[in-house]
């Protein structure tokens, strides 16, 4: 339940989302631990299919709905003082490099 409202993030292409989530690093780990050329070739074909713009990379989009509190700056609680020239770091939303609100 999101009593405080929701924020919509995205859409972003599947390719962008997977890259933001670290698909290249995961691919490298899998390639290093794979046994044999056939399994490495299958990993590379699968990566290409998921991220290539002509295949699934741009044809599929990711869209997220989050509690509004997840993307808003935290409100100072009573008794706390924030430095005026220093803002709190924004809360991360995994996989989304830009936030689009609707």
TrEMBL record:
Per UniProt, the enzyme's principal EC class comes to: transferase
Q: Which GO terms describe its molecular function?
A: protein-arginine omega-N symmetric methyltransferase activity
Question: Keywords, A to Z?
Answer: Methyltransferase, Mitochondrion, Transferase
Reactions it catalyzes: L-arginyl-[protein] + 2 S-adenosyl-L-methionine = N(omega),N(omega)'-dimethyl-L-arginyl-[protein] + 2 S-adenosyl-L-homocysteine + 2 H(+)
Ranges where the record places region Disordered: 74-102
Asked if the keyword Transit peptide belongs to this entry, the reply reads no
InterPro entries reported in the protein's UniProt record: NDUFAF7, NDUFAF7_sf, SAM-dependent_MTases_sf
Which GO BP terms apply?
methylation; mitochondrial respiratory chain complex I assembly
Q: What is its main location?
A: mitochondrion
List cellular component terms (GO): mitochondrion
Q: Where in the cell is it found?
A: Mitochondrion
- Assigned EC number: 2.1.1.320
Say what the protein does: Arginine methyltransferase involved in the assembly or stability of mitochondrial NADH:ubiquinone oxidoreductase complex (complex I).
Entry's family note: Belongs to the NDUFAF7 family.
> What is the protein's name according to its record?
Protein arginine methyltransferase NDUFAF7
What organism is listed for this UniProt entry?
Answer: Neogobius melanostomus (round goby)
């Amino acid at each position: 339940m999101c009593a405080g409202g929701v924020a919509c993030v995205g859409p972003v292409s599947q390719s962008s989302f997977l890259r933001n989530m670290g698909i290249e690093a995961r691919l490298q780990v899998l390639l290093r631990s794979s046994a044999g050329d056939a399994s490495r070739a299958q990993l590379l074909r699968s990566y290409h299919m998921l991220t290539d713009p002509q295949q699934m990379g741009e044809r599929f989009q990711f869209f997220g709905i989050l509690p509004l509190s997840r993307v808003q700056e935290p409100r100072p609680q009573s008794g706390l003082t924030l430095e005026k020239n220093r803002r709190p770091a924004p809360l991360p939303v995994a996989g989304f490099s830009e936030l689009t609100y609707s």
